[in-house]
Write a structure and sequence with these properties.
The chain contains eight helices and six strands; from the N terminus they run H-E-H-E-H-E-E-H-E-H-E-H-H-H. By secondary structure, it is of the alpha/beta class. A six-stranded parallel β-sheet has the order 2-1-5-3-6-4, with helices on both faces. Helix 6 packs antiparallel against helix 7 and helix 7 runs antiparallel to helix 8. The protein is globular.
Length: 267
């Protein structure tokens, strides 16, 4: 397999890393995740033997993300929202609160440079918000001919928590909704939703990138998620030896998808 272009550089510290450190500073005791005796990387939160940080690179993308994270979600090693920030340069992360809403978050949502889309299941939408299945150039162009940047807003928590965030946050009910019904079952083996159609945050983000006309970036995020899941399970001894797939296969799949993404962006 040929090497990746030399232009992309290893992704630096990102918004979720910074939010993780901030959330830890608010805690009076260490977060008690399962596998707490495992020695973890401080950035990816995977076991040090299965750290993926050296493979992390930003994608070439015209899409931005906002993660609104439910309280302890950013502390969980199984959180997949951080994978979005691993690959998407313009990713913003905020803690959700019911009353003391972050003013920087509200300012970003009202920034005329962006067109926010709430990525959320249509069946939970409670008002007359516009619902779309694709983000097209037309939906990003103003009457003055200005093209905005799509800002995909992800509610990062359990599905019950995400529904609560939506219902308790009027500002989330004032933007178009990007919704889709995946036909395949979730492969999220770490913290599976209560229904088969409920996917992990990174899986939904990968679908959202495809809906934003960036299918190669969607594939890159999907393979990055696969590598994350396998590395997590290996660190927790959740794979029987006879069922092991060499971790290099997941690394190579991500590198191939990353290469295809950069080649697509250069055309």
């Amino acid at each position: 397999m040929s090497e990746l272009p030399s232009k992309p550089t290893k992704a630096p510290i990102h918004a979720v890393h910074r939010l993780h450190e901030y959330r830890k500073s608010l805690s009076t005791k260490p977060f008690g995740a399962r596998g707490k005796k495992l020695v973890r990387c401080n950035l990816c939160l995977l076991g040090e033997l299965f750290c993926t940080c050296k493979h992390r690179q930003y994608l070439n993308t015209n899409t931005s993300f906002m993660l609104i994270m439910y309280n302890d979600e950013v502390l969980k090693p199984t959180n997949s929202g951080r994978l979005i920030a691993d690959l998407i340069p313009d990713t913003h992360a905020f803690l959700w609160t019911r009353t003391d809403t972050d003013t920087a978050m509200l300012a970003l949502l009202s920034n005329p440079t962006y067109q926010p889309f709430l990525v959320f299941p249509q069946q939970y939408v409670e008002n007359d918000q516009v619902v779309v299945e694709q983000i097209t150039a037309t939906s990003l162009t103003t009457e003055q001919g200005i093209t905005k940047i799509p800002l995909l807003v992800m509610l990062d928590g359990s599905w019950r928590e995400a529904i609560k965030m939506y219902r308790k946050s009027p500002y989330l009910q004032q933007m178009p909704v990007l919704s889709f019904a995946p036909e395949t079952l979730a492969t999220y083996a770490l913290r599976k939703g209560s229904h088969d159609f409920q996917l992990g945050t990174a899986e939904v983000a990968a679908m959202a990138l495809t809906a934003a006309q960036e299918p190669q970036n969607g594939l890159a995020l999907s393979t990055w998620f696969d590598l994350f899941v396998e590395s997590s399970l290996l660190g927790r001894n959740r794979r029987a030896k006879e069922t092991l797939t060499p971790i290099t296969e997941f690394i190579n799949a991500f590198k191939q998808a990353l290469k295809a993404s950069h080649e697509c962006a250069e055309k």
